[in-house]
Design brief:
GO terms for molecular function: DNA binding; DNA-binding transcription factor activity. Keywords: DNA-binding, Transcription, Transcription regulation. It comes from Leucobacter komagatae. This protein is an all-alpha fold. It has two domains: 66 residues, Arc Repressor Mutant, subunit A; 158 residues, Four Helix Bundle (Hemerythrin (Met), subunit A). The protein has eleven helices and two strands; from the N terminus they run H-H-H-E-E-H-H-H-H-H-H-H-H. It has a two-stranded antiparallel ribbon with strand order 1-2.
Length: 262
């Protein structure tokens, strides 16, 4: 197994420095696709930080598509194709420049999310359900910490992707994950009035989704994905954009002052 010489971290936001060092070790070839990073305990000792900082750094690296954690895999954290990370950055930049409208990203998530949920409901294993439960517990624990809340949400959906059993779906979704994190963070931390209410809604929807997947109710799980995204992002869209999502979600159209269905 390859071994990188990581340096101790002396920084308030230690997880960011950990991300940079591990990312560099992957990009310079010290760790190649298919290799496994040192154990969590070894990383804690090398970086001389707390376990929570290492875990948060690994979650971020996973959201970037550079590593993958698989429930039940005793080998640990696997290095994945860094091309996904590069594509994620390109997509994130395009979103910031408004080249990719928010409605397109949400619409895509509706399509891929509902399919993934359906598959997960029929192929999930106990370790996948455990990972989903852990993520929901983190969402409840970090309800008032938007950044950590967003990471827990990503962990929840990563567990669903693993449960779906579709490797292509996992690979494609890893490309858009950083954009999703930024979008979710922006949504759940808007202001003191809306932020907590939105986070409570997310927790409620995730609990319902977990219940549907654990019970094998694929169609219900798929519907929850579409409805949750419509509830979360619909208010941020124009009437015409919201109409697109309502058509995809299969919900009844509201009266938008003269907008009619074709």
């Amino acid at each position: 197994m390859p071994e990188a010489a990581f340096n101790p971290i002396k920084h308030d936001r230690a997880f960011e420095a950990i991300v940079r060092q591990i990312e560099s070790a992957i990009l310079d070839g010290t760790y190649k696709v298919g290799d496994y990073l040192p154990s969590e305990r070894a990383l804690v000792e090398q970086f001389q930080v707390g376990r929570s900082s290492v875990r948060e750094a690994l979650r971020i690296l996973e959201s970037l598509g550079m590593v993958r954690t698989s429930p039940g895999n005793r080998k640990g954290v696997e290095v994945t194709d860094s091309m996904a990370s590069s594509m994620s950055r390109l997509l994130n930049g395009a979103l910031r420049l408004h080249s990719v409208p928010l409605v397109d990203l949400v619409e895509y998530r509706m399509m891929i999310g509902s399919t993934g949920n359906f598959l997960a409901a029929h192929s999930r294993q106990d370790e996948h359900l455990e990972a989903m439960r852990d993520a929901i517990q983190d969402m409840e624990k970090y309800r008032d910490v938007p950044e950590r809340f967003a990471l827990a949400d990503v962990a929840f959906h990563s567990a669903i992707q693993e449960a779906s059993g579709n490797s292509l779906m996992r690979m494609i979704n890893s490309v858009i994950e950083t954009a999703v994190i930024d979008l979710l963070h922006e949504t759940v931390s808007d202001d003191e009035a809306e932020g907590p209410a939105m986070r409570d809604l997310f927790i409620e929807k995730h609990l319902a989704l977990y219940s549907a997947i654990s019970a094998g109710r694929g169609h219900d799980a798929a519907a929850i994905a579409r409805e949750s995204l419509l509830d979360a992002y619909g208010p941020r869209l124009t009437p015409l954009e919201r109409r697109r999502l309502e058509l995809l979600a299969g919900t009844q159209l509201e009266d938008f002052g003269g907008i009619t269905q074709n």
